[in-house]
Amino acid sequence: MPSTFTSALGLEKIATGEQDGTWGTTLNANVIDFLDDAIADELSKSVAGASDVTLTAAEALHAQHYYTGVLTGNINVIVPAAEKIFHTSNDTTGAFTLTVKTSAGSGVLIPQSSKSIVICDGTNVLNWLTHLLGAEFFLDADNDTSITADTDDRIDFKLQGTDLFRFDGTASTPVNGLDFIATATGSPTEIKATGDTNSGIDIRPRGTGPLDLLTGAFDENKGADIASVAGITDVGVATGNFLDISGTNAITGLGTVKAGTQRVLQFDAAATLTHNGTSLILPNGANIVAQAGDVAKFVSLGSGNWLCSNYQRANPRLEDAIADLSSGSPTVNDITGLIGAYRISGWITGASLSSTDELKLQLGDTDGIETASYTGGVWDAAATTVDNSSGFNLNEGSAADGTWDISFTLTRLVQSTFTWKLESLAYEKVNNVVAFSVGLKALSKELTQIRLTSLGGSDTFDAGALTIMSEIA
User: Are 136 and 126 a contacting pair, CB within 8 Å?
Assistant: First the structure.
């Protein structure tokens, strides 16, 4: 009975009783030598020129293929259509391509100066790693680091436990860069954490080495709005470093994040920021009542402590006016909504009362107008004095035909007690009277309103106008 041959390597299988006396010679030549070539031997083959090169069965049998020579055109290296793994090395020169394939099937392009493992499945030549068909390729002994060539056009690297993905260099041959090549203009390369809901990404230079952005802009996404919460408004959970704060609740803290974290907050409403020398350090050590459009920059000091490094008002000067103090005006004229002011400048022009009473200025907060505990007084040119009590007296020596022009300034002095200082200068031109007024008043809360009235509170206005300008801290 004649010999048969294996389908992949063509190894001769001697039939029982055949080749008496020559069996060992055939085994050595057609099996053992073939296995030696197929498992460990190498083929060095010149494929120079521009024509396809077909390997013989004996040449293709070798485990390692080294292709050499100068290419003058794109070529194919044709291997037999039999199942076989090849370790290939393209050592050719010349700016042309080399593809390993079967005569009738597809193949794999082997770049110059590179090595690749390819497999023939009996019809086509395939890249061996691609031919894993999504199987996981483990890289370490405990099987927690692997590569998967998946079916979604990507390669997944899995690192678990304490394993690291590291680019390793030496002092003489450092790692000079990591390039991400975008496929199209305007299509950014993403580095993102997926999986667990709150996975972070740390970029940490070695020692004192800086993290440099050499070219281009550092673009960030705006975070989702966060509603103010009475007490701790946690901006550590923000989805971006710049975000809006909605609502009017008083804020005493901003949550706990690592030191150095920065947040830029834009306020949508009049939320109050409460100063604390440790946990919420604000400019000038004073509370801030935000207005819509205000922007503040905060830096975390760690352990739930924050420093406001900058506070920018959307409108640092707010103007209010009562333009009509003419006949029939009420006995009191209030201006409200003065939240967050640290200085108020006022002008009273041509003011006249229905009788001979003096003008008085009173302060108030959200609990109402304060009618007691004002200090200081008013002095006129005749050395007449009247002490403040129920309000700041603005003039002295009024006559029924007198009209007053008065300039006054209210300045907040002490944040903790909301203490305000008054300075005013009054002139009555009909009777040529000048008066000076100074005083202090401590409120229990933030100033929100002022009132212009008469000293006795019963005279009505019959002429004049009032204008104020408030400046916000």
Answer: no
Residue-level pLDDT, tens digit, the chain, 473 residues: 687 766 666 666 777 777 777 766 766 556 555 565 557 678 999 999 999 999 998 898 888 899 999 999 999 999 999 888 889 999 999 999 999 999 999 999 988 988 888 999 999 999 876 545 556 666 665 667 777 766 566 777 777 766 667 766 666 666 666 666 666 666 677 777 776 667 777 777 777 777 777 677 778 889 999 999 999 999 989 989 999 999 999 999 999 999 999 999 999 998 989 999 999 999 877 788 888 899 999 999 999 999 999 998 887 766 565 656 766 667 888 888 777 788 999 999 998 888 888 899 999 998 999 999 999 999 987 767 788 899 999 988 766 667 899 999 999 987 667 899 999 999 988 888 899 999 999 998 888 899 999 888 888 888 888 888 888 76
List Cβ neighbours of 303 (8 Å cut-off, separation of 6 or more). 256, 259
Secondary structure (H, E, C), the chain: CCCEECCCCCCEECCCCCCCCCHHHHHHHHHHHHHHHHHHCEEEEECCECCCEECCHHHHCCCEEEEECEECCCEEEECCCCCEEEEEEECCECCCCEEEECCCCCEEECCCCEEEEEEECCCCEEECCHHHCCCEEECCCCCCEEEEECCCCCEEEEECCCCCCCCCCCCCCCCCCCCCCCCCCCCCCCCCCCCCCCCCCCCCCCCCCCCCCCCCCCCCCECCCEECCCEECCCCCCCCCEEEEECCCCEEECCCCCCCCEEEEEECCCCEECCECCCEECHHHCCEECCCCCEEEEEEEECCEEEEEEEECCCCEEEEEECCCCCCCCCEEEEECCCCEEEEEEEEEEEEECCCCCEEEEEEECCEECCCCCEEEEEECCCCEEECCCCEECCCCCCCCCCEEEEEEEEEEECCCCEEEEEEEEEECCCCEEEEEEEEEECCCCCCEEEEEECCCCCCEEEEEEEEEEEEC
First to last CA, the chain: 108
0.85 cut: is pTM over it? no
- The Cα–Cα gap between 300 and 281 comes to 10
CA distance 447 to 166: 60
CA dihedral of residues 142, 145, 149, 153 (deg, nearest 10) = 160
Q: Give CA–CA dist 80/103, Å, rounded.
A: 8
